[in-house]
Amino acid sequence: MTRYVMVADLRRCVGCQTCTAACKEGNATPPGVQWRRVLDLEAGTYPDVNRVFVPVGCQHCANPPCMEVCPSTATGQRADGIVTIDYDLCIGCSYCIMACPYDARSLVDRTEYAFGEAATAAEAARADRRTIGVATKCTFCAGRIDAGTARGLVPGQDPEATPLCVNSCISGALSFGDIEDPTGPIATLLAENQWFRMHESEGTEPGFYYIWDKGKL
Amino acid sequence: MSTPAAREIRNVPSYCYNCVAGPDLMTVRVENGVATRIEPCHAAATIHPGLGRVCVKAFGLVQKTYNPHRVLAPMKRTNPRKGRDEDPGFVAISWDEALDTIAARLRDIRARGLLDDAGLPRVAATFGHGGTPQSYMGTFPAFLSAWGAIDYSFGSGQGVKCVHSEHLYGEFWHRGFTVAADTVHTRYIISCGTNVEVSGGVCAVRRHADARIRGVKRVQVEPHLSPTGACSAEWVPIKPKTDPAFLLALVHALLFEHERRALDLPFLRERTASPYLIGPDGYYLRDPTSFKPLLWDEATGAPVPFDTPGARPALEGRFTIAEAVTRGPDDEVRPQHNVAARTAFTAMADAVQGYTPDWAGGICDIPAETIRRIAAEFLENACIGETIEIDGETLPFRPVAVTLGKTVNNGWGAYECCWARTMLATLVGALEVPGGTLGTTVRLNRPHENRLKSVQPGEDGFMVAHFNSTGRKDWLAVPSGRNAHRTLVPIVGNSPWAQALGPTHLAWMFSSDAPKEWPAPPLPEIWFAFRTNPAISFWDTAEIGRAMARMPFIVAFAYTFDETNHMADILLPDATDLESTQLIRVGGTKFVEQHWAHHGVALRAPAVAPQGEARDFTWISTELARRAGLLERYNAALNRGAAGAALKGEGYDFSLAPEQAHDVDTIWNAVCQAATAELSHGAEVHDLDWFKRNGHYVVPFKREDWYLYPTMVRLGLRFELPYQERLLRVGVELGRRLHEQGIHWWDHQLDEYVAIPQWHDVPERWVQSIRDMGGDPDDYPLWGITTKVMPYTTGNNAGIPLMHEVSANLRNHGAVVINATTAASLGIATGDWVEVRSPIGATRGRAAVVQGCRPDTVVIPGQFEHWKTPFAKDLAFPSLNTVVPLSLALTDATGSGADVVRVALRKVAAPAEAGAA
Amino acid sequence: MASRRQRYWDLRAAGNFIGGGTGAGLIITAALAAAMGAPFRLALALGLGFVAAGLSLVWLEIGKPWRALNVFFHPRTSWMTREGIVAGGLVPLGLFAVATGSTAAAIVVALLAAGFLFCQARILRAARGIPAWRQAEIVPLILATGLAEGSGVYLIAGAHSLRWLAFALLAGLLREAAWLAYRAGLAGTAAAARSLAVFDAAPARLARGAQLAGLGLIALALATGALGVTFPGVTPWGAAVLAWAGGALAALAGWGVKALLIARAAFTRTAAIPMVPTRGGGGSRARQTSQP
């Protein structure tokens, strides 16, 4: 089987928001909507302080709470683990947004443009009315993955088959691939390092792994 | 995703060099003629240290292109009055009218002479951010060269607010205009304020991330927890402007708290001037015949010239020298008989004897044990005696580095810090060797593309240094430029970049308040401005604005209306990043941290047609040259290499016909072919069409050439360290010259010309400046400093909504960062409006209350407070520049200031009204 | 700052929980009244009106109102689908019961109403992105407040005799207990700190005050009637006013709390990372941490 997951190495992430911008631009999300973003968190008390940058977004959970609550079956799940939204089924009730423990989903009611008054040529070229009034979120760039795998490319290895955020990450924090491939780079990365997943107690089985240290000896 | 019926998709190669950390390579995706997104240049992944990627700023270039607020036609001013509150009354005009207007003035100036009655150029030009505009101005450098004398004195912050002192001292000591750790090989880094994870660029961010995984320890010494501090193994919250004490204490620790043999003694003996003997008058004791500096030969027990073969130099000691001479200021040769001498190394040890970690701890607010431990860790990791193979060459391996950042390496205290960080490297032989502290490029020396080639043997066994003369005959008593760089700053020299690296704030200050000893500098008759906004990016921005308003004729290459071109007479819309053509050099080693194993050239091809009436800068330059009667000189400059490559070389000639006005593609086609012919020694020649498909062309760059050490060894040269005998002499001479003119207002700066830097109370200078401004320091109890976030490190992104949106994820964006305890004591919570005030002004913003900041310090990121730039003017963000004064007293000997000021902080009810000071 | 106030379910969504809660509670009270021979048709109609009004408000809020029928597609796991299905039976059968005055129909409608209210409570409980809704104690709270609001309105739209005053008082006390349990639950949930702060602020205190005042007035009305006590100046007409005021406050208090719960006190979970990453060698700064 295949399950695509994202790995964020928190030792590498510098909070630059390059992935945030690459995703926004690549997916033409409207102002205020960020499918991928990086949080800026702090812990401790002066002078013993830590500051951590945490990439977040849809975790493509194995047990997605969004899918459970969706009344219209617009939210679905592929065999490869990618959680999807059928924009044509969604009624825009926002229940999935309430259900997501990762604050990963958004909904906009009307078209807005970055500069306010009118669309730029780039916005007009990418405008998609189907995404107005419905829930949207990170898709793991499923279109790129499918187009890539159809040509024999490997998601996570070949840039054309890889999510745009991973391609853009300048520190190398983000990695992507099939966790079910036992000798593949993702399995290796997770075997060799210590990691956690967020809000595991919710039972969501997220497909987003955070590395925090190299493996114990 | 939307799927229109027929979609033509092009992927256009380009580069991003919007900030000094570049250039990096990228791809512009164009759908049906519209640029829709930026992507990495994956094809460059094997040659670009950042895997062909670009940072967040580059992703704003699509919005930049289609910004509805762009100036898209040439414009002229109709309201003759200039000022912040005057509406310029810009109206659109034709290119012909715009260019003819400018050309007429240029021809008129040429007829009267390029220099005015004060001997200053009538034409001035200012470009922003560290030379990067050069990669977006097409062939404009050829126009400037064809013109002749131009005054680059008016700065916009670069040159004084950047790592300026280190530019000058770093390049002087080890051809390090900018400096980086050899991150790929290092193990331990002491970083005093270098903010790599924000402004280091794509290559540095990747390399430092790799280093962290490898287990490299970086200690970030900085008053607040920047992203770099966050990504470091240790954060040391130092009190602002006390870094000299910290670094001098580290030097002390290495010299006095560890065994001497733990240091790299061979390096000190052979590669530095440590063994040179110093006489009682403070100058090198020299051989009376050859004037060569002497060292003590342990083999013969006698003083010998430094380059005596077979000599075994004594590193330290005190000796009696029977016969010698010293060469003092103004060629005074002083005979020395039976004088007490000590080696330069001993002089250094004597000079830092009092700088114990306990002493420094009190000044810096750092525990002495921390300072000691850091010194010990530095020494432990230095691997003295070890070697490493780099591409088949065996080089010393010293994986420890020290780097400095803004506010540490500019302004008072910077000389001490730069010297100390260089000495820390030197003591363990980690200067310019694998793993150590490396210079990355040169700008005062040439050639710019290869700093190693700029190393020539000079006097006394050192590299040649092209100082401005301070001698009686040749010192430039009357300034040749409005910032008087050749007169006031000997170390900056007189190469093409020197003026822009002079004390550029003095040009602004002197424009309204000139020293009486010099002829009052008339304002330039034409001022060209491109990719620069001094009204936002300098200090005392209100005063800068007033100075600009007095300029008689300003030609601004305008992207949108902004606070600087508000004062312009003509606006010219140049085609921006994705709309124009240019070939630039990439790779090798460059500015910030871009050590490649290749070097070559990359093309920025037009991805889309220019919006509106915007035109390619190359076309503008050619037209200006033609209309100003400079076409032949312009083409000659191009042929000589003003566009980046000489068009004629051994075995190739792509010269342009001198009397023709060539179009954009013709020019760049010639440059493409010449550049590839040069790089491949004639083996491969690629034209513009090839570059439009392939983007870049590189050849191998020896990794050995990352390091200056082999060149120094090959030429038998020593680093001019530790003792600054030349600076001592130059300082005395400069003092004499200035006093002969009756000039005493540069005397404080003369204090910096000491042979071994000494601690002076650096923070007190800023406290004193409060008194000088009529304030009481007790009313301004906090230190105000600045920092950056990556989306806004440069490139004038303030008007790009995407950058603002993504930056909102960062806690300090647009905020005043305050320590939680300090905030609580003032009743301030995150989100409250606060005011930061100095005697010259106030700025307001929302508070970001954090733990990661010293209680006595507030931090204002970025440079904002726009009042004209669309989108930015509605942000209501604070700016430290509003409250930092332009001050001669706060200018060091290199002509630098620093972004630091004493401030008051209080909670307020609301942001200030628009226009309020 | 990783926790944000949700901004998608506004007062229109709150209106659904208000209309649904009060309406269901009123329908249940009306059915009880029907079973005991008390007036019920007006109350039943009003209850249906509340439910319908609430659902209409939701219809106005969703992004694609003309696809509203898609809401029925996921009964297997979605409480919102189930709510819709139950409503689909509740409204027509309720109208039938009002039209015919059938007690049997009224009782079936009441069971559907109870189911509807339960679905609403479970909708909130399943919202794992909002700790204040995810709180287990929210289910009894929603049920109890629905009953307290509905039984309060019944005092105005149905009857305010001793029996119904006692019922309203009992429902009100159940709601008190449910509220205290919910608050205690919130206090024990670290992720709910910002929600708790909203419930400590003035608007929430006002609603709580109304809740307690309503209880007090109902108790007073009950005491006045039950003990046959005649207070000086309190006429039978005055006792009715006490009952109506108490009932109104019982409803308004519930509405206020639900409006705050949905539109002001609903904060997303923060990002919590259990370990701080190491950044290079020489002594790890890794440590356990969780964000407030």
UniProtKB/TrEMBL annotation, chain A:
Q: Does the keyword field hold Iron?
A: yes
Q: Which Pfam families match?
A: Fer4_11
Q: Which Gene3D superfamilies match?
A: 3.30.70.20
N-terminal signal peptide: none
- GO molecular function annotation: 4 iron, 4 sulfur cluster binding; metal ion binding
* The entry's keywords: 4Fe-4S, Iron, Iron-sulfur, Metal-binding
Task: Name it.
Answer: 4Fe-4S dicluster domain-containing protein
Q: Which organism is it from?
A: Acidicaldus sp
- Source species taxonomy: Bacteria, Pseudomonadati, Pseudomonadota, Alphaproteobacteria, Acetobacterales
From TrEMBL, chain B:
What CDD domains would the database entry show? MopB_CT_Thiosulfate-R-like, MopB_Phenylacetyl-CoA-OR
Official protein name in the record: Molybdopterin oxidoreductase
A Pfam family it matches: Molybdopterin
Alphabetically ordered keywords of this record: 4Fe-4S, Iron, Iron-sulfur, Metal-binding, Molybdenum, Oxidoreductase, Signal
UniProt lists the family membership as follows:
Belongs to the prokaryotic molybdopterin-containing oxidoreductase family.
Write one Gene Ontology MF term.
Answer: molybdopterin cofactor binding
**Residue intervals passing through the bilayer:** none
Q: What is the lineage of its organism?
A: Bacteria, Pseudomonadati, Pseudomonadota, Alphaproteobacteria, Acetobacterales
Q: Which residues form the Molybdopterin oxidoreductase domain?
A: 70-626
Query: Which part of the chain is the Molybdopterin dinucleotide-binding domain?
Result: 810-866
Q: Which organism is it from?
A: Acidicaldus sp
UniProtKB/TrEMBL annotation, chain C:
Species the sequence originates in = Acidicaldus sp
| Alphabetical UniProt keywords | Membrane, Transmembrane, Transmembrane helix
Supply the name of the protein: Phenylacetyl-CoA:acceptor oxidoreductase
Keyword Transmembrane helix: yes or no? yes
Give the residue spans that cross the bilayer. 12-36, 42-60, 80-98, 104-124, 136-157, 177-197, 209-231, 237-261
